[in-house]
Amino acid sequence: MMFLLLVAFMLMVDEGGVAALDSEICKVTNCKRYGPPVRFPFWLKDQRCGYPDPGFQLSCSQNKQTILHLPRSVKMAVQYIDYEKQTIDVSGLDGETCLYQQLPSLNLSASPFKFFGELQNITLFNCSEKSDKDSYGVGACPIIALPPDTRNNFNLINCTKFVDISAVPRGFGFGISLQWSKPMCIECEAQGRSCRLKNVSTPPQTECYDNPKPSTQTGLPTKVKLIITGAILASFLILLTVIGLYYVYHQEKKNKESQGKIEKFLEDYKAFKPSRYSFADIKRITNEFKDKLGQGGYGTVFKEGFLMMFW
């Protein structure tokens, strides 16, 4: 029990130290092992460690996709984040075959992003003929997007015009790139440093800081060493406890045996009316046990004057 309590305490202290460090410098996180790294200005839901704009909040789906929530309930899967160029590449979620269906609902004016790359005006058509969709490369999506100068190249008899949309990235149906300009951390990234919020600043301001150097420590991790040290210390304390208990037991047994001998002596020689003396009296009478006459089954015999003392 003592061992378990000690190990638990050490783990709590160690985790507390990690938590304290993380509050100062946010850790790089991701939704899955090889997923896009999430760091400032982005932050995962419930982390609250990035730039204070809800547009930079990301989340993890059940299948561990990194999700970007855009205004008006548009969700897209994050494929790559370029922190040096301040761009983020997004595409449709797993199983979503028609990204164009979300385009009419997308409005970046309420987000920190803008489209990155070449833009064009398009018209969305709702079509039923698979051949037309396949010719434009959208596959099973019932929506096709056509620039104004290409409409005459397609058979749109079975298509219904949906909506005209201006300034849309080319290839939107396969994914797009978004760019943010605030916070501006390009200079920090160019220096090989990281970006974070200043401790106290209104409105929010950023600053560059040096990345923590990777540990060059060899051997076991610090936490493992602490656990091993705790186990050794706990084992030592348990050993001392066992030794102490054995010593107490041995002394009690010895005292009981000694008391038993005295009681037996008094019983065997009760006809001589033996008397009880305190240890101080016996020490004084025997002149501090200087004259030893011998030793028998009841103990050592000392002499003083005409008295013989058994001890």
UniProtKB/TrEMBL annotation:
Cleaved signal peptide residues: 1-20
The reaction(s) this protein catalyses: S-ubiquitinyl-[E2 ubiquitin-conjugating enzyme]-L-cysteine + [acceptor protein]-L-lysine = [E2 ubiquitin-conjugating enzyme]-L-cysteine + N(6)-ubiquitinyl-[acceptor protein]-L-lysine
Keyword S-adenosyl-L-methionine: no
Pfam families cross-referenced by the UniProt entry: GUB_WAK_bind (PF13947)
Transmembrane segments: 226-249
Subcellular location: Membrane
Location of the Wall-associated receptor kinase galacturonan-binding domain: 26-90
InterPro entries referenced in this protein's UniProt entry, alphabetically: ATL20-22-like (IPR046948), WAK_GUB (IPR025287)
GO terms of molecular function: polysaccharide binding; ubiquitin protein ligase activity; zinc ion binding
The enzyme's E.C. designation: 2.3.2.27
Keyword line: Membrane, Metal-binding, Signal, Transferase, Transmembrane, Transmembrane helix, Ubl conjugation pathway, Zinc, Zinc-finger
Pathway as given in its UniProt record: Protein modification; protein ubiquitination
Membrane protein topology class: Single-pass membrane protein
GO cellular component: membrane
Entry's family note: Belongs to the RING-type zinc finger family. ATL subfamily.
Protein name: RING-type E3 ubiquitin transferase
Organism: Gossypium stocksii
